[in-house]
Give the backbone structure.
Amino acid sequence: MKNHHLLKIAISILLVGLVVSLFIIPGSAFIGDINLDNHVDSADLYAIGQSLGLTSSKPSYSRGLDLNLSNEIDVQDLAIAGRSYAAPHIFHYLRQISNKNGVYDQDSCIDGSGNINIIWGNDNAVFFSRLDRFGNTLIDDVQLAGNNTGTVDIGCDQEGNAHMVWVKVNTLYQARFDQWGYQVLPPSKVYDEEVADPAIYGFRKMDVALDQQGNAYAFFNTEHHAIPTLLYLQADGDVSLAAHPAESDSSLQYHQVRVDHENNIHLMWYQEEGTDRIYYARYGSGDTPSLSEQLIGYTAYDGFYNGTRPPDLEVDSQGNAYILWHRAYTTNLYLEKITPGGNHALDDFVLFSQWDSTGYNRPPVFTLDANDNLHLLAVTGWGRSSVHSAYGSFTSNGDPLLPMRWFLYGEPMGNPQIMVDGEGDIQVTFSHPYDSGYPPCPGEALCHLGTALDAAAQDLSRSDLGVDAAHLDFEPLIARWGEDLAITTTIFNEGWFTSTASSLSIALETEEGQSIVGTTQTVNPLAVHTTQTFTNTVLSLPGSPPSGLEEMEYFRLHLEVDPDKSIAETSEENNSLSVPILVQRLPTKTGLFLIVEDETDTARGGSSVELNVGTASIAGGSYSKTGIPVSDYITVLGKDIPVGDSAINYTINWQAAGYAAPTSVTLGVQRNSSDPYTIDYSPSNTAVLKTNRWGSLSGNISDSGGNPLSDATVRLEGEGLSIETTTDASGNFSPDDEPNLAKLIPGQYQIRVSKAGYERQSGTIEIQPLQQSTYTKNMPTTT
């Protein structure tokens, strides 16, 4: 009966709304979705209704039901939940996304991968962070610059690149991270002619935006000359001046730039000269005309500084520009819509009339979704002077879709940014203005609040370990088999709770996940927002890759924290990181060469002559190649000769008409056992084959009766040769007794035979190449 009565109260509160006078206690960013089903419905109201009257001192008290964090569950909590009843976007718990406090400026953008990229600064440094759409950290607080920094800004593209700019000591700097978290453009100076420094001269908004090719445009003004400056920042870091949209000697600030899908550049700036006013201009691309600067409206500030006055600029998919602005001392937010043709489709249109204009550093901001609907974040002062942050959505014509409603109770957000991701969820980043201890985002910290629901990501009892992509480093950049790879990486905990001890696995893998070599490190228990760095963890690569991977050059360096998934975490996406790594390929092929030398002239003391005729062949192991033309001094037998860990012997032969077939040569090839990147050749990588055109001579000397004459002297002269030999007992002479007779240069020779007691004999003989000639002679006795 009691529960029925409580539910009746809840429904009554829902119907009447309990107006907004109840929303005055700071606290929850968890707006009534008690069961985390992404809807506020009767089940959520019933859960709160059942707990009415419970206080923090009672064991059954649940912090999740105390929406306004008053330490008591009462009708105010019902009213907060009732205001969000049936809303399509439910904002969930705040998440702290900075390890350091004192945030004075921040800017965010969503890239094509759906990740939230953030640049932010405090009194000491400028940092870059990256989140997934649920607020889980992917890159954790990479420091870009040291102290004395000013305003910051960031732009994203569809490839996942983030390009950022910031001011340090009146100088503009830039950096860039790609989709993998690599700092592809390290911090570098962009412009140093005294950029207006907001740390000294107030918040002078600059802006950066990326075009469809990933190049950036930075819009700002100099300090003394007060000239708005547009720079073109290419992805590789080159900088050039794009334009000076206006010449002015007045104070300019709140610059904004957007680049639409046709690469048209839209600019907006705020000018202080007499009555403050807002200007818009466009640099057209292709068929879109340029628009010279035009006055949007007078703000009536008359030089009076108020932190809520910055206007905001967005561009839709049709190239229409939208400017959100306001006049001093009014509660109206005006919307300007400028068509590609320059017409004002909306002119001083009152988008929202209940804006609270008091306070510092909490301007209204808006964004556009894929359907060109507007999403507005602004401070309201509904009921009893309550000042809270509210959210609502509108059509491109300014008609309400979701009426403005409070979504963060307590002090309004500082420097807020609102975005819509590819799934249509709202993402908000801001600096937290107070320190209540709960929700878990301390004062002056950087926080995230979104409507993307992941129940695990909102589980306050979980830790969230992650491998920080931007802090990964390894040496050498090109690894080698048989050598060490030294890896430095950082593990962080960005969850809600201290993590238990776990492990970090580091492995070299193929793209298919085959592990080559790996190691494991111990990850200590990590408190929230703390890190552990592993410096120079060594992977000793084997001397050669596994069989079948000899030709592979690109592998993955895979790091995974808590690989066994033994810890219940808010996200597993950031536990694993795989980056491409180049391993220098071992020599698996080599070249072998051939030189063919004709030794014919060496018989008379000449030199060998290199030949460029004939064909060669090579065979060894499974490799065989024939018919290789020899047409130069050095012949390439093959550039694809296989090389292995064991020696492979290759036999080389050569042949050509008119030349003697040389003795084959064998070359041995293998990788060096100590240095696998060195090839050992035995005896060398070049075969030298010796050939010739020599003819030969043998013969028989006998007396007139045909009896053999031994010890007869045979002299042969011709072609520069002079050879003398004697006959044996059988009257024969041959190369067997005189080897030079086998190396006769083809041509005509004089032959003389003599023996005491016998008449001398002489004659002429023609030696043919590669043929054996025979000389036979009878010697009569002397008279």
In short: The chain has a mean pLDDT of 88. Residues 24 and 386 are 5 Å apart (CA to CA). The helical segments are 2-16, 42-50, 75-83, 198-201. The longest strand covers residues 530-540.
